[in-house]
TrEMBL record:
It comes from Alteromonas salexigens. NCBIfam families: nitro_reg_IIA. Residues 5-147 form the PTS EIIA type-2 domain. Pfam families: PTS_EIIA_2 (PF00359). PANTHER family: NITROGEN REGULATORY PROTEIN (PTHR47738:SF1), PTS SYSTEM FRUCTOSE-LIKE EIIA COMPONENT-RELATED (PTHR47738). This is PTS IIA-like nitrogen regulatory protein PtsN.
Length: 147
C-alpha cells in the first residue's frame, strides 16, 4: 500500500485545538464525513470509540493510529490531524499525542487493513518524517512531509 494513495488535503487538518481523546475522535469523524458523503459521522465515531475501548491506539512518541471498520466503505481512507497542544490519549508510553493518523477501512477487509497499518507505522517511525509533520503549519505541509 502506497501512503500517497491514502492521504489527501481534504482529509488533513493542521494544529487543531482540542483537549480530549473523545474530542479528537469527533474531529476525525467530522473530517471523514465532510470529505465523503457516503460516510456517516456517527458511524465513524462509534467505530473509532469501539476500537479505543479494546486498547489505546496511541503507539508512543506522540503518535496515535486510530482506526475502525466501516460498512459500505469501498476503499481505505486516511485522516491525518495534528493537534496543538498535544493531548492525553492513553498512549503506550503515557506521553501526550499530537499526530493522529486515522484509518477507516471497509468492514470486510482484514489482511489489507493490517498491511496498511504496517505501512503507516513504518512511515511514522521515520524521525525526519515525524519532525517535518510537527513543523507543519498547513495541511499542505503535512502532505509534503508524508511524501
Amino acid at each position: 500500500m502506497d501512503i500517497h494513495a491514502l492521504v489527501s488535503l481534504d482529509r488533513t487538518e493542521c494544529a487543531v485545538q482540542c483537549n480530549s481523546k473523545k474530542k479528537i475522535l469527533e474531529i476525525i469523524s467530522q473530517v471523514a464525513a465532510k470529505s465523503n458523503p457516503a460516510i456517516d459521522e456517527a458511524t465513524v465515531l462509534n467505530s473509532l470509540l469501539s476500537r479505543e475501548r479494546m486498547g489505546s491506539t496511541g503507539i508512543g512518541n506522540g503518535i496515535a493510529l486510530p482506526h475502525g471498520r466501516l460498512p459500505g466503505l469501498t476503499n481505505v481512507q486516511a485522516i491525518v490531524i495534528t493537534s496543538n497542544p498535544p493531548i492525553d490519549f492513553d498512549a503506550l508510553d503515557n506521553k501526550p499525542v499530537d499526530i493522529f493518523f486515522a484509518l477507516l477501512v471497509p468492514e470486510e477487509q482484514t489482511e489489507g487493513h493490517l498491511q496498511t497499518l504496517a505501512t503507516v507505522a513504518s512511515k511514522l517511525s521515520d524521525k525526519e518524517t515525524v519532525k517535518a509533520i510537527r513543523k507543519a503549519s498547513s495541511s499542505d505541509d503535512i502532505i509534503t512531509a508524508l511524501e
